[in-house]
Amino acid sequence: MRMHRRHAILALGSALLLPGTARAENKPLVTMYNDPSCGCCSGWLEHLTEAGFPTKAIEESRMDAVKQRLGVPHELWSCHTALIDGYVIEGHVPVAAIAKLLTERPVVKGLSAPGMPQGSPGMEAPDVEPEPYEIMSFGANGIAQFMRVKGDKPL
Question: Based on C-alpha coordinates, what's the Rg of the chain?
Answer without folding.
Answer: 17
